[in-house]
Design brief:
Number of domains: 2
Order of helices and strands: HEHEHEHEHEHEHEHEEHHEH
Structural class: alpha/beta
Radius of gyration: 19 Å
Length: about 325
């Protein structure tokens, strides 16, 4: 509880902990970098590249996506934190680097509520339970029935701290266990799954879709509260008995602490405007994503709530820390 109180106290101080406004030139004056802490082809990467293209058009400057993979998104987060607080290096974040890592790491080398400033919350994406195409399991019920009989004998691909926490939580709800095999992002994990190197994986639907369409992996269940529009015949995990389980990827933009207010405000308004137009609605619908727009203040409140929820899950289900 002391850890939680410290996180909330720091966050309240740092949500507006931006630099005292100096006399600034018009922003932006040069290219902007979006740091994606996951591999190409993941849901985070797909949304980041769409965002970069739209930001370029809105701001009139190049916006470059740079994948800085490794350490459960810690490397990418640290790249941004160590960058000048001028709005030209931003973190395009999923859950992991800004919430889950706080819950899952004994000693996280940064504090996302102190070292990063929220800019805008953008969208969320559904997750699912996947197995290789040649897996003997044709349904999630068959899969869990066998997993309960063989605790510790299955392995799964973990592409980030979020996937690790979620899979351990799901296995606890099922009354069994499985071994984590870590990969630098969901993309490599999905490739390993398609190749039969792991038995199953929780992953974002959009990143898994090309392999599904290619007949290399199979989706057993959605990790959402409703069936996916693009996969209406596939049940949710809640439907088959895991009523507590709900997993999404949520995407947002953060800047280094100390970034000037005017820069954050420009980015915040531009991003929220982009995600409110028809082009963005079409993009989200095409990929089974959901509009999840929120201001910098709303993003911080949501981030803090997620940190609290994930710390509770780690403690309740005795999920091993990293």
């Amino acid at each position: 509880m002391k850890k939680l109180r410290n996180i909330f106290a720091l966050a309240l101080l740092t949500v507006s902990a931006v630099a005292v406004e100096p006399a600034l030139a018009q922003y932006p004056e040069k290219p902007i970098k979006l740091i994606v802490p996951y591999s190409p082809g993941t849901g985070t990467d797909i949304v980041a590249r769409y965002t970069a293209r739209r930001l370029e058009g809105a701001l009139g400057k190049p916006v470059l996506v740079e994948n800085r993979v490794g350490g459960n998104a810690i490397i990418g987060a640290q790249v941004v934190i160590a960058s000048p607080a001028d709005g030209y290096t931003l973190l395009f974040a999923a859950n992991g680097p800004v919430s889950t890592n706080v819950a899952l790491y004994e000693k996280l080398p940064y504090d996302p509520t102190r070292d990063l400033i929220p800019v805008a919350r953008l969208a969320l994406g559904p997750m699912g339970l996947f197995v290789p195409a040649n897996s003997p399991y044709k349904s999630a019920v068959e899969f869990f029935d066998d997993a309960k009989k063989r605790p510790g004998q299955f392995n799964y691909a973990s592409g980030s701290a979020t996937y690790n926490l979620a899979t351990e939580w799901l296995m606890s709800l099922a009354g069994t266990s499985a071994k984590a095999i870590s990969y630098n992002g969901a993309g490599p994990g999905l490739i390993a799954l398609a190749g039969g190197q792991v038995d199953f994986m929780l992953a974002d639907y959009s990143g898994a879709l090309p392999l599904m369409q290619g007949g290399r992996i199979r989706m057993l269940a959605a990790a959402t509260d409703k069936r996916l529009p693009g996969q209406p015949s596939i049940p949710t995990l809640q439907e088959i008995g895991y009523k507590e389980f709900f997993l999404i990827a949520w995407w947002s933009v953060f800047a280094p602490a100390g970034t000037p207010r005017s820069v954050v405000a420009t980015l915040e308004k531009t991003l929220l405007d982009i995600y409110g137009d028809k082009d963005a609605v079409d993009f989200l619908s095409k990929n089974n994503y959901i509009d999840f727009r929120g201001s910098a203040e709303e993003l911080r409140k949501y981030q803090l709530a997620e940190i609290q929820r994930e710390i509770r899950l780690v403690n309740q289900f005795k999920i091993p820390k990293l």
